[in-house]
Amino acid sequence: MKGFSQNGMLRCYNLFPSYFSNIDAMTDYLSTLQQMGINTVWLNPIQLAGTKPMGKVDEITGVQQTVKKSIYAMWDPEMIDPRFSVVQRDKDEDAAFSLSQMTALSNDATIAKMIETSGIEKFSIVQLVPLIKASRKKYAASKLEQDKRVYETLLSIQRSCIQFLDKEAIKRFTAKAKELNITPIFDLVTNHVAKGAPITQKGAHPEWFCDDSTYPDATCFKYAELLQFSHMENEEILALIQKDPKKLEPLSRKIYENNLSEADIAIIQSSTLLSDDEKEQLQTKIKYKLSLKERREIETLIPIIVNGFWDKFISQYIDLGFSGARVDCVRKVPAELRRALYSLIKEKVKTRDGKDDHVVILEEALFSDLSPKQFRDVVKGAGGTHITASVFNSERKWDGSLVYDHSEEEYFKKQMVQNGVINFTGNHDHYSCAMKVALFLAKEKLDADPVMKRLYDTAPPDQTKGKGREIRKSIFLHSYVKDVLSKLQDPNNYWDLCMRFGKMYRDMLLSQMFQGSSGYYMLSGDEAASVKQPTVFVRENDAPLYPEYTFSFFINNDHPLYPYAQKVLEEMAIERSAESADRVIKTVASDMLVGAMAGARTGTAAAKTAVPAAKKTATSGACAAVATSLKADKSKPAGKSNPVAAHKAITADEIAKLKLAAESRKKEKLQSETEAERQARLLKEAQAREKDEERRAKAEEQQRATQRAEAEKAAVREVIREIGHPDAFKSRLLSAAKDQIMSEVNAKVTETYAAFFERLTAKCSSVKDFDIKHMQILSDKDYRRLQVQPLHKQTTTHNWERPTILNKFANVEFFKEINNIFDHLSRPKDGFWSEVFKRDNENILIVMRKNGPGFDSDTEMVIINLNPDKAFDITKEDLHKMAIWIQERKFGVRDEANPEFHKAYGGIMGNTQYKQKPAKLFFAGKLTVNDDVKNYAIEVDGKSEKFDIVVSPQPITPLPLLGPQPDEFIPEDDLVPSTEALIKQFKMLSMSCELRRSTLSSSTSAEVSERQKMVMSQ
Known about the structure:
Layout (H helix, E strand, L loop, with lengths): L3 H4 L2 E6 L7 H14 L3 E4 L3 E3 L4 E4 L6 E5 L5 E7 L7 E2 L5 E2 L2 H8 L2 H8 L8 H18 L2 H35 L3 E6 L3 E3 L23 E3 L10 H11 L7 H10 L3 H9 L5 H10 L6 H28 L4 E4 L7 H19 L6 E4 L8 H8 L4 E5 L18 H8 L2 E8 L8 H15 L2 H9 L12 H18 L5 H22 L3 E5 L14 E2 L9 E3 H4 L6 H18 L10 H13 L2 H4 L1 H26 L7 H6 L3 H21 L2 H48 L3 H21 L3 H16 L9 H7 L1 E3 L26 H13 L8 E5 L6 E7 L8 E7 L6 E3 L1 H16 L7 H11 L10 E5 L2 E3 L1 H4 L2 E4 L2 E4 L1 E4 L27 H22 L4 H13 L1
Parallel strand pairs: 1-2, 1-16, 2-9, 9-12, 12-13, 13-14, 14-15, 15-16, 22-24, 23-25, 24-28
Antiparallel strand pairs: 3-6, 4-5, 5-17, 7-8, 10-11, 18-19, 20-21, 21-22, 26-27
Helix pairs in contact: 2-6, 2-30, 5-6, 8-13, 11-12, 13-14, 15-17, 15-18, 16-26, 17-27, 20-21, 20-27, 20-28, 21-26, 21-27, 27-28, 31-32, 34-35
């Protein structure tokens, strides 16, 4: 297959390091990627990560947890994180070199010279780690400077040994990729480093960094502030000045490109296009992050940081064999820096390879607060080859089109890069493609449950900003997602749920791939329809965020501890959901959970309203206390201690005299004040009125918010009262919290682990004849690896965390067929746009790719059968329908007088009048092309033009009616069952009848199992 440089199509695989045991395992998987037709592999950051803990909401459960060691928070750029290193570590974090690694180290001249010049008596690599442990112990006891030097020297040698082995492993990775015609690219995270990283400390370069707290576990470079400005305020400015947008274009452009500074204010003031009121409005709305002086100071830092840090960093990765980079979060990285870094990459690759046309620079441009046009004008192009778009986040309409119109994003972003825009099939900040399908089907199930749907609609949406997450979605959908994934494991559901799931997976995956002008990137696991949740973190105790081991009593219904473990999980989930405001989803009112749980326990209406009643009692008590204190004040005698009573003692005449005197003094003061004093007084009064107005508005808004909150809670309580099965409701709503607790126990999170086993012991101690002494031993013994393994423990793709029944939908041959289409698509041009269709036949996905603006541009039709079991024939009538659909979608009604209406049809079927050739056709899946398609022709410029079938469907091999031919001839007499076989069949039938009878009797499962064994032995 072609590389991306042939037609600009990036077929990129996001090789997520956490899914693999080490770099060598990643290298082994490259052969599979080559078979699939991948031409670029992007490796996420693998440098040593920082250890600053932070709180994060889990994508699956919606529950807050403590995590650390994000692979995007770089601590040491020269060391590979132990999670991905080829060198294993022991409990002291010392190297556990293998025999082959020791041999490689012994043969390296640089390592040998380090040992020779260390000043320590000569030793072999085999002795290195024992010497480190002995030296560590000696220094800990003596605290002598000499012992410290020896210890640090040995650690330095060990560090160099680990670096050498990891670098050699990475070189093997990049060499293997190039051998397979795959371009390897690294992850360039220029926005920040880990919080407390050595480079940020005193003695290094703290002046390069700012106090931006966007990332709790990271410290941002100062240049990230150059693109920070009050966007919403600037939107208001633009709305104000768009009376004459052409004349004000320079100001508009300046707002977007450079933010507003003192110079910009001067421009506004000198403008002859704005009235004085408009000028004043503009000034009051301006809120800029940095002054002009501060911006210039930071801009001068950029070349210093590039030369002092990024040059060495990039050189390291180019020397290791990489040929490009994926650039993280370009929204926060100024174009000046990106331009300098991209030039460095291209120069160093050209020096190494003699050319740079194969360099890939993929800009990640997700989660932006800007419109596509603003993104182009603010972030600017810097010489990248590809840039990402946001189709993944869009929902689909009934006809297959997207709710989100991506054409504008495609248009403006393509202007920023050399090739074009790509989409992604899954993302480590979101979900895998298959998990997104599971969430869609789960929401369908929730909507079909009237009680849960009303609860979901009633619960206020989460206000968390950032990526548009709604925490309530995780909590409400969690149990339904589990239902969907559980049913996918049952082959009996193949023609119903499994077939639908598989086709939706293909539909969603391919829609992302083909909608971008220049290809796609695929998350690890998406090629296998994996539902495994990607994560860049580990837990605070260094355990995996999603443990690979579990206690058997959590998943084995027959385990003696299973019912007790489930009860403890439920109790802990109730407490966590109801009492810990910092760890629960704050979008669901606390009285909703507490009331529902109380109702489930007692089954009484009184219990369901226990919390509201308690709140009412507390409020009544507080009111009573206030009333009592007021009565006490009124009962006090007049005097200094009771100013109210003293005030009543003043007569009405005296009050009138006091008022008259006060008015006289005020009048004299007003008459004697100067103009300056008058202006100051008026300003003060105006400010006081403004503050009063603000306080009043704030109080009114607070009152409205309180009323809304009370209305929401009242609605929730009303729904809870209507619930007919509180146990089912409880199970649904607690599912996420139970799974989170179970995960923490499996990961041995200290607090949760101890609390769980304390409760489990208490539960079991009340059971007669239960041996408590052996419970902990039994539990530890049953702590075993989950049955479903992640890929890095396997050698093939079929062991991803996914239902094996989806093998039909996600396999190497399918992706090879899809990537063959990308291999033959045209190089994208400016103005590219696309449309997705899925009508009449839910098995067929149609993507129309227009390679240029308007309907005159060349048309490429990608037609794919999503159903792996059923073949379809594509006819001329089908293509005619597609042409009609594009007319309907773009014009709504038949507009015969409009030439563009006819060009829309001609883009597919061709048009003699407007000199349009029939479309190019690309097919994949079980399809046949009818002869009327192959023979269709129209006349264009005096020539007969036909459909250009660029990629034909794969030949369909029909299966023999009676199945495959046997390997060897079997005499017909041998097909007659023997007497022994007939007896065995009779015994099996008897056993089946026995088992049926046992289900109607009072026999225990043990007795049934014993009888089954007896029948089989006979």
